[in-house]
Known about the structure:
This protein has one domain: 3-Layer(aba) Sandwich (Uracil-DNA Glycosylase, subunit E). With 228 residues, the chain is of the alpha/beta class. Strand 5 and strand 6 form a beta hairpin. The protein is built from eight helices and six strands; from the N terminus they run H-H-E-E-H-H-E-H-E-H-E-E-H-H. The longest helix is centred in the middle third of the chain and has 17 residues, at 129-145. The mean pLDDT is 96. The chain has a six-stranded mixed sheet, sandwiched between helices. 46% of the residues are buried. Helix 4 (80-91) packs across helix 8 and helix 5 (129-145) crosses helix 6. It is globular and about 50 Å long.
Amino acid sequence: MKRDSLAALAAEVESCRRCPRLVAWREAVAAEAPRRHRGERYWARPLPGFGDPRARVVVVGLAPAAHGGNRTGRVFTGDRSGDWLFAAMHRAGYANQPASAHRDDGLRLSGAYVVAAVRCAPPANRPSPAERDTCLPYLVRELRLLREARVVVALGSFAWNASLRVLRGLGTEVPSPQPRFGHGAEAALGSYVLLGCFHPSQQNTFTGKLTEEMLDAVFSRAGELAVL
Length: 228
């Protein structure tokens, strides 16, 4: 296995124990599963990204959900945010199916790659700045390996700011003041375009802050930018 391969990086991510608070939380959640998931074997480890190695669109989320990715072993798989995300990616032609319930359910991505800025489920879905910065070098390395990537879709302000840090880590010049997050915001940064999207969390989808039409428009725009 090549040291700089996505598979080698994934194995490194999965064995990471650098953030004691996150390690303790992800394992405690698995040990005390709610009734609806009782008896299931939780992943309870960090999550690498997944998708097409030749992806031109990279989708960056915040972190795995405690009973979503932390349970299933794949980011956005098995939670309500993922239901919205993969349905939109399916409509846009990036996913072969509109839903993903578990790691081996046959979901495949074409032209896209999905990853979280922080690889472990954090308490209250709020990683600390130190935890964020500990994780970000993994995404720097992933983007280096995703050589055809041209568009980064940031799901929420946390992912937007993390992506700006990652692009700096790749040697991309980021202006000061830095581009501000907003739904549909765009920032051309070196060979990449950073595209903002409200996170498909229940807080946003239940309130109508994010609609299917809004999410579809983001992926339509990402497709346009990816071929420029």
